[in-house]
């Protein structure tokens, strides 16, 4: 694939090859996310198509701001759309409860923010991080390994990349946990039994 700026320009021109390549690159992760969260293949396709419409409109209106890779951005839009659909279906609580039981405290924190419809709180603190941290965490949330991150950031070792990722993630989590809004959310939704270490 070309770099993200070239891809965005080609999407705006309606280049079918670029859109097809984006589908091949991005759809498998979106399909997996939908299938593992009470959805089926057709719903995954619908979510991807809706995501591409949103992306096109943002590009056309010149309102697209990327703080991570385009593929991560596409996945994020799709995930938020799917969570909204689950909320409307009344399936959201069960799906996210099941998901939290199989993940660590950092992921629980992000899911808690999504669950309480306060994604803006996460975005607020994510955007306050330095550019390097934002890139590292975008790749980390996208599932990229430390070797990939070290290469992209020109770090000398995977160990150093891992250390930087830990510091960035720790800072993000601490900032969110220290925000008064976070405490209002947790107290207001009777989540006393859900502890984030």
How do the strands and helices of this protein lay out in sequence?
Layout lengths: L3 H9 L3 H20 L5 H20 L9 H20 L2 H9 L4 H11 L3 H9 L3 H12 L3 H7 L5 H20 L2 H9 L9
Helix pairs in contact: 2-3, 2-4, 3-4, 5-6, 8-10, 9-10
Distance between the termini: 40 Å
Number of helices: 11
- The secondary structure category is mainly alpha
Helix content: over 70%
- Report the C-alpha radius of gyration, rounded: 18 Å
Indicate the low-confidence ranges by residue numbers.
92-106, 112-117, 188-197
Q: Give the helices and strands as they follow along the chain.
A: HHHHHHHHHHH
Shape assignment: globular
Largest sheet at a glance? none
Number of domains: 2
User: How many extended strands?
Assistant: 0
Fraction of residues in β-strands: under 5%
Q: What's the average pLDDT?
A: 76
